[in-house]
């Protein structure tokens, strides 16, 4: 058996072991400071005795916390502080399990709890809580599996979701999480993050975590049972609900929804006057009423949004005018109308002002001004149309120019049958953007092109198409497809940028499928196969785009430049695809040579 001197010498020669041992077994100073319990140990027989005293004080403190009829969140906060201290975690959090509209989820109740943090800092307001679906993240996996999870490195775990780190700027390295279970249902999850002084939580940390997790479990179950008891007591209540003696006999309740089918309120009616229960007729009347209530809510929201938009417009206009508006003196330095005509610019004759501008303002080429074209932007026509519509409403064109809204209605002079025809054509155009229907109509469109190509007179072609509504719809649908795919015919500088933007969106969706759903994305959405983009573009042009522009160039000669642009872009993509394929072939040949060399080496 070792004597005192040998033990002392061993501890001095192994300071790291001594630190870990005292930190794990004793930690008297830390525990004393944390629990405000000044223990005096006089000549303890062993470190084990001191540890038992400290642990007894800790357990007694936790038992008092559980039995004290205070706020559950405050008691849970103190328990989390002690657990965080015992397992040497940087932070701890408590997530409560709940179900909204039948969808299970986890919401933050206490977040980023540390041994010294205040309750007010860690308590999460319901309006700013972070919500996890039950099938997302380490927390969701813990609640779903109802098992303890120790993740040494979150980067190596596919279930880890980093959107909280992206919002808070905190870097999560390792996680220790355990569920709080009542009967067979998970009612919460406690998670410890980032072990201090080590790269991961150890088995001893797991044992301590589970041991003191029982106090949190008792507290959560007590709160859950109290909640269920309150619900059942209200459900079984038969006495009067208020002092006046008024009682609820029957209830008719309907939701108020907005245009997105989101519930924005509930309309509730109590106690029909004749004492009878509400019937279907009452439900129909109430449904009609809730529509008006929904419109009222929508009007308030719309008015609020319009006010915010108007305020933003005023601020932007004021900032723009502050930067661009010049004084009259500065204006005269450019347009010296007082010197020339002894008049203000707005009072000058139009022809005189034009001559003065021509003499004063330099030519565009002299000051190296560049021309402006919409095609300079790598966006689709659809985005430009949306931008134009947005500008139309934000600039309030109708109000400023006093254009009656009725005069903008293009259907106002149509009869009912004509309006139905136009509406049907709109439906055809909208559905035509589905490429599945495009493949079905390609053969019919090709037959129409072949039939009209043999006709010498343009009048005969027009009659051949206009006399048959099905032919018109097919041509209209193919025109919509041609417009939808028109980005592929743009100049190479624009088309290549558009292709990269679209590919970036696909890759982002593929990343979500890989990280969140744990699925392997298809090659088109796989960022790891980005080098194969030129090859996929060539396939897309050959399989989808080439037919429509080739047939349209036969049907209408003015479409030929678009077909030429398509072929030019395919040539560029083919060059890039050939370069990539040459690299792949070279790598395969090198691999074969290495394999053959290995075989020869084994043979000898």
From TrEMBL:
<dbReference type="InterPro" id="IPR002073">
    <property type="entry name" value="PDEase_catalytic_dom"/>
</dbReference>
<keyword id="KW-0378">Hydrolase</keyword>
<dbReference type="Pfam" id="PF01590">
    <property type="entry name" value="GAF"/>
</dbReference>
<dbReference type="InterPro" id="IPR036971">
    <property type="entry name" value="PDEase_catalytic_dom_sf"/>
</dbReference>
<feature type="domain" description="PDEase">
    <location>
        <begin position="406"/>
        <end position="580"/>
    </location>
</feature>
<keyword id="KW-0479">Metal-binding</keyword>
<dbReference type="InterPro" id="IPR029016">
    <property type="entry name" value="GAF-like_dom_sf"/>
</dbReference>
<dbReference type="InterPro" id="IPR003018">
    <property type="entry name" value="GAF"/>
</dbReference>
<protein>
    <recommendedName>
        <fullName>PDEase domain-containing protein</fullName>
    </recommendedName>
</protein>
<dbReference type="GO" id="GO:0007165">
    <property type="term" value="P:signal transduction"/>
</dbReference>
<dbReference type="InterPro" id="IPR023088">
    <property type="entry name" value="PDEase"/>
</dbReference>
<feature type="binding site">
    <location>
        <position position="484"/>
    </location>
    <ligand>
        <name>Zn(2+)</name>
    </ligand>
</feature>
<dbReference type="GO" id="GO:0046872">
    <property type="term" value="F:metal ion binding"/>
</dbReference>
<dbReference type="Pfam" id="PF00233">
    <property type="entry name" value="PDEase_I"/>
</dbReference>
<dbReference type="GO" id="GO:0004114">
    <property type="term" value="F:3',5'-cyclic-nucleotide phosphodiesterase activity"/>
</dbReference>
